[in-house]
Structures are given as C-alpha cells and as structure tokens.
Amino acid sequence: MRPAATWECSHVGGxxxxxxxxxxxxxxxxxxxxxxxxxxxxxxxxxxxxxTALLRGRSSFAAPVQAAQxxxxxxxxxxxxxxxxxVRVERVADQCWRVTMASAGGPVAVTVQxxxxxxxxxxxxxxxxxxxxxxxxxxxxxxxxxx
Length: 147
Prior knowledge:
Elements: E1 21-23, E2 28-30, H1 38-46, E3 55-58, H2 63-76, E4 86-93, E5 96-101, E6 108-116, E7 134-142
C-alpha cells in the first residue's frame, strides 16, 4: 500500500489493549484493524480523518483525555484528525476528570470517571494473575447548542 512509509514490528504493546497500528507522527493508536481495513485507514488518514470505530487514542494525550475525546467524537460524529483539541483538564473528584476541548461550534466539555471492570482477565501476554482493567465511563457530555 505505502511500503516506503510503513514500518512493521511484531509487538506494539504487550497487553490486550495494545494497538496493532500506530500512525506517526500523530501518535494515533488503532486496535482490531483487520488486514482488509488497513487501506481504508490509510485513505482516511491521508484525508485528515480518523476511523473512530478503531481509534484507541492519541499517545500524546493522558488516558482521561483520550477517553473524553472518544466520547466527544462519538457524540458529535467528529472524525477530523485535529478536531477536539484539549484546552483544559480538571480533576473534579477521585478518578474523575472534566476535559474541555475546542470545536468549531464552541467548547465541548466531557466528564469521565475511571472505573474497574467487573471481570478479572489476563491483562498482558506474560501475566500469571487475573486482574481487573481500568476503563473510563462517560459521566457527562456538554456540547454547544446547534442554532
């Protein structure tokens, strides 16, 4: 597809949440990318868009920001690569953050709460113990009113 612009490695992460495609220099992490979906992912990126259904997050953002951006993208149907840049992150309670992002229609504020999964699973390839995983739950999504 783009052999001169493609690097290949055998292992990007090390846990069940590890991405299987990393897009540089943007640091976008994608997961569960099937071989037949790779061309669509590359095409979307060349158009300045992300494939939200496969996007795991952006490596330069802290986990609560990645989660908030995910929920904002889902709420707004936003797939532009550089949309929803974080402008403020506030810790509002223990394991709870309010992330304000810039959007064309005005600020978008998303509050996320870090929780643990109910079921314990093997989190990494080499782990011997079952553990719960951290997940982020949407608490609130405040989007600008449409005229």
